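Hi all, long-time lurker, first post. I run a small reading group and we've been trying to get comfortable going from sequence to structure in the token notation. Rather than ask abstract questions, I figured I'd post a concrete chain and ask someone more experienced to write out its structure so we can walk through it together at our next meeting. Sequence below, copied exactly:
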Amino acid sequence: MYPTMCRLSIGLFCASAISLASGVFAQNYPSQTVKVVVGFPPGGTTDVIARHVAQELGTQTGKTFVVENRGGASGTIATGGVAKATPDGHTLLVVSSAHGTAGALYASLPYTDADLTVVGMVASTPYVFVVHPSVAVNNFAELIRLLKQHPGKYEFASSSPGTAQHLGGELVKRMAGVNIVHVPYKGSGALMPDLLAGRVPMMFENTAIMMPHVRKGALKPLAVSSAKRTSLLPDLPTVAETGMGLEGFEVLGWFAVLVPARTPADVIKTLNTELNRMTTKPAVLTRLQELGAEPMGGTPEQAASYVRNEQEKWGRVIRDAGIKAN
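-- Answer (accepted) --
Happy to help. Here is the structure in token form:
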């Protein structure tokens, strides 16, 4: 009996020691500069969101958070690097909704989902479906009827295969039973001249990016991709409101913070608390609104569930459409 009791006592002691150490670590966290890694070049929406995160977490904790851009392969190179980082909370990763499609788009990745833990959601951004004024429709229902009358005649653009712009179009095709031809470009900058000239007549794109062209009348907005209307275009209906088989339609860009797996639970809780605090601050809400974004928040468990659901949803669309990354 004595050896058994001894082993039990030692086990309880070790568990208590680990718990105490974790608590002390969390109280001292962060103890050094925190890297906020972004898998895209400076200037894009993901980078802008990450810089807001770094700035606000730094202000709230009184510590230093710095953004490090590691572009390439739709963010997967940076994700693979963070997955291998020391799991102590001093390396964070800000991902976009591209993280939800990477597993289905790429034959292999430099990480697995088990290598990472979702800390929390930051924000979501809707897309607006725009058409060139030469397309003789005034709402999304009219567009669907036009596409059904002329299968394969019309094209839609995206910045590259597998992006939310592309997948939004594929989801319309799947749900409404229409045939639109996808035309991929190498980035939004490359496609804009053709879109504005009407050479490719329609697409989903970030609402904030499209607003200047909508205001000038260069492009005509038909619907937004979110489940509810956006404050940037409050009178514009959602795709789902159109009917035409599109009930329940939703495509969102989203941004989340991840850390390497095995990061202490107390550190994850601290980061999640600070993220939720950040997304309630009036100044942050104003900056997000300028991007056409809305705060998300929630617990780590809710965030992880959201990411899994997105991976499953878009995995089905990508596989059914036979989409591959370039």
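A couple of things your group might point at:
The chain has a mean pLDDT of 91.
Strands lie at 34-38, 65-69, 91-96, 116-131, 155-158, 181-184, 202-206, 220-224, 252-260, 294-295.
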